[in-house]
Every structure is written in C-alpha cells, then in structure tokens.
Design a protein that fits this description.
The protein is of the alpha/beta class. The chain folds into two domains: 124 residues, Aspartate Aminotransferase, domain 1, CATH 3.90.1150.10; 255 residues, 3-Layer(aba) Sandwich (Aspartate Aminotransferase, domain 2), CATH 3.40.640. It contains 13 helices and 16 strands. A seven-stranded mixed sheet has the order 4-12-11-10-7-5-6, with helices on both faces. Strands 1-2-3-15 form a four-stranded mixed sheet. A three-stranded antiparallel sheet has the order 13-14-16, covered by helices on one side. Helix 2 runs antiparallel to helix 10 and helix 11 packs parallel to helix 13. It starts with 17 loop residues before the first strand and ends with a helix. It binds pyridoxal-5'-phosphate. Pyridoxal-5'-phosphate (PLP) binds next to helix 4.
C-alpha cells in the first residue's frame, strides 16, 4: 500500500493514474488528457518523454547506470561538474552532488557550520532564515523552514534556539545581523520567490543588502535555488544577480527525470576544508550522489536550456501570463502575483478554491492548489494556446463558482 505525500490517508481522494506522458500532457487510465500546469512539482521544464533527454539516459545506460563516488569517478559526473563550474556565476566551482533537494540543503547547512568549526569559531551555531521559508522535509531543513505542516515538531521540541526567522524586510534583516552576527554561520534564503511558502515574491534589494551584511559580518550566504533555479523567476539563476557563497540546485537539474541535486560552494568555502587535517574534511556521501544516469540527463537538460533559448521562452510565458491576467479580479482574491514562469492567485479564504482541482481536471488541466494558493508553474515548452487554456481555467473557476 502506498503512503502518499502530504495526505491524510483516511480522507484523501484517489490520485489520477497516469499511463503515459508526452510534452506538457499527462494521459490517465480514464483516457483523459491533462496539461500539467505545475510541471510535476516544478521540475519537468522540458515536458515529459523528451526524445533527447531519453536518448541521453539510454546512451549512458549502455555503459552502466551507477557507480559510487567513494573511490570511483566517471565521465558523466566529471562533465556535469565541469559544465556547472563554467556555467554558474562567479567562483561557484565546487559541486557536491546528492539525491534530493532536501539533502542538498542539509549539505549546505552542514558545510556552513563546519566551515566555522574548522576555524575554531565554535560560537557560530545559528542560522538566519526567512519567515514562510521552505527548504525541504528532512529534520534540519524543517527546523530552518517555517512551514505550518511541521508545527508538531515545535510542539515536541519547542522553538529552536539555533534558528532566527525574519520577514523579507531590510530593516528586520539589519536588526537580525546587528543582534546575532557573532553567532550566525549562515543566512539561507529562497531568493526572490518563496514557492512552497505560498509563491511569495520580494525585491532583489533585500538580497543585495543581505550580501553586504554577510560580507560585513563574515556570515555565509546560501541561496536555495532548488525551485527558483533554471529560469523559474525569469532569471537563469537569481545567483547571476546576487552571488551567494553556497548555491543549492535540485528539481529541474535533471529536467525532472529523476531525483538529483547539487550543493555548489565557492572558493572561500572550499578552502575552509582544504588542509592537512583529516578532521577538517567534509564528511558526507549520499549513496547515489553523482548517479551516472542523473548526470547524463542533467547535462542534456542544461544543453537544451542554453541552445533552445529557454530564457526567451520564459519571458514569453511571463508576457502571456500578464496579458491574460490583466484586469482580472474578484472580491475573494487577495492578490495575483506573477514572476517569470510562476503565477499565483492568493485568495482570502482557502474554501474559495476548494474543488478547483476537480474543476480543472474536467477542463483538461492538472493543478494542485494548496492552502490559499491557486498557481501554475508550467513546463517551459508549453505552447501559447495551452498556456492560455491553463490561465483561462484558473479565471473561469472564479467566474463560475
Ligand atoms: C522542493 C524544495 C526542496 C526540497 O527538495 P526535495 O528534492 O523535495 O527534497 C528544497 N528547497 C526548496 C526551495 C524546494 O522548493
């Protein structure tokens, strides 16, 4: 029996069963064709069953699917690491691979803590994070997150004294640095767009100020771009505009084909581990890190992203979305937010969008609203008429319900 994610199993409705998928479409066992408006948790940026991505995996599979990175290496992981090193901004050059975004976040947090422990700065045990943050479901990721799904943890342990949460306001940021800088090892953020926290968008001025303060007080800046990376905000990476010390990538890294992630450190962080002392080594190693199939498909995914001008596809998606949403309003709607290839309609009352998933299904769109948020994060290969259909379906719900 499958235990499904984020569900009360006693009351959950049966999931749609997918028997095939191609491009932006999911095909169900009920002969229903659905546009996937959320790209399988924001990861399937090239659409499903992509010929070139399939081929990259098939070609690797002819040699081997996986070898461990402990004491071994292989061409696909070397090529992906080289590609990321040259493709990513600044001196983000050292790639630590892992199997999921949550683990990659844990790796980043562990790096930041140990970076200071290696220097004997044992007082730097605290992390600064954002209100409404989401960084994954593992334990430290839950602790730095601010997600009401995990309030049972607060009940069990009380509020963590190792994490400070602030809103995305410069004044709060400055105050937090002033007060806690001696004890902070890092500030971790989802830059510009907090996705699972409700598609919250904020200004880049906040990140620029964060960079300055991190430099001033010697605190590491971590960007969790697991969701925002690979163009979702309209920028290739937010890191192209404000450079973090550690960058975390996941989700779309493999074009949504399989779980893989990377924690990428700059020279300063790497050098904090690089010496004669074995106790200063970074002790971490997920079994499937650098999986050859994942690395092959990730390389091909990046290749498509570059060669097929995905940033212009994304800006086109944003322009169509703005055009379609222009002038749309309803008294039950608190705000319509658009950034890059992400659109969110926030309602005052969660009940307003209850039943929307089934409504969208009947119209041929797969959607998964949560709490007060109805949103779309489409595959970048979507055609104009398909995107218009997704947006029209969202609007129709308010007109007809
Ligand atoms: C999804 C997500 C994660 C967790 O990634 P998993 O692969 O699900 O473990 C971490 N951070 C952000 C910002 C995410 O959106």
């Amino acid at each position: 029996m499958i235990w499904y994610p984020y569900e009360q199993m006693k009351t959950m409705k049966a999931p749609y069963k997918i028997v095939n998928a191609k491009g932006v479409y999911l095909y169900t066992d009920q002969q229903k064709r659905l546009i996937d408006s959320i790209s399988s948790w924001w990861s399937v940026i090239h659409g499903y069953n992509h010929t070139e991505l399939n081929h990259a995996i098939e070609a690797q599979l002819k040699s081997f699917a996986h070898v461990m990175l402990g004491g071994l290496t292989h061409q696909a992981v070397e090529d992906l690491s080289d590609k990321l090193q040259s493709w990513l901004p600044g001196d983000l050059d050292y790639c630590f691979f892992s199997d999921s975004g949550s683990v990659a976040v844990e790796v980043g947090l562990k790096m930041a803590l140990q970076y200071y422990m290696n220097q004997g700065q044992t007082q730097r045990t605290m992390v600064l994070a954002l209100e409404q943050a989401y960084h994954g479901d593992t334990f430290k990721a839950m602790e730095i997150g601010d997600d009401e799904d995990y309030h049972f943890v607060l009940k069990a342990y009380g509020k963590s004294r190792y994490v400070i949460h602030i809103p995305t306001e410069i004044q709060a940021l400055e105050k937090a640095f002033e007060k806690y800088h001696q004890n902070l090892n890092c500030f971790i953020v989802e830059p510009l767009l907090q996705c699972a926290g409700g598609m919250r968008m904020y200004d880049i001025a906040f990140l620029k100020r964060a960079r300055e303060l991190c430099d001033q007080y010697g605190v590491l800046l971590i960007f969790d771009e697991v969701a925002t990376g690979f163009g979702r905000t309209g920028k290739r990476f937010v890191s192209d505009f404000v450079l973090p010390d550690i960058l975390v990538l996941g989700k779309a890294l493999t074009g949504g084909y399989m779980g893989h992630a990377a924690t990428i450190a700059n020279h300063k962080v790497y050098e904090g581990f690089y010496d004669e002392n074995p106790a200063h080594a970074f002790m971490h190693g997920p079994t499937f890190m650098g999986n050859a199939l994942a690395c092959s498909v990730a390389l091909k995914s990046i290749d498509l992203f570059e060669k097929q001008h995905y940033l212009s596809k994304i800006s086109n998606i944003e322009a169509i979305t703005r055009r379609e949403m222009e002038g749309f309003s309803d008294p039950r709607i608190k705000e319509v937010r658009i950034m890059g290839a992400c659109v969110c309609i926030e309602v005052y009352d969660a009940h307003t969008i209850k039943g929307y998933q089934q409504f969208a299904y009947e119209k041929g769109v797969f959607s998964r609203p949560f709490l007060n948020y109805m949103y779309a994060m489409v595959p970048y290969v979507i055609k104009e008429e398909e995107l218009v259909k997704v947006l029209t379906t969202m609007k129709e719900w308010f007109i007809t319900s």
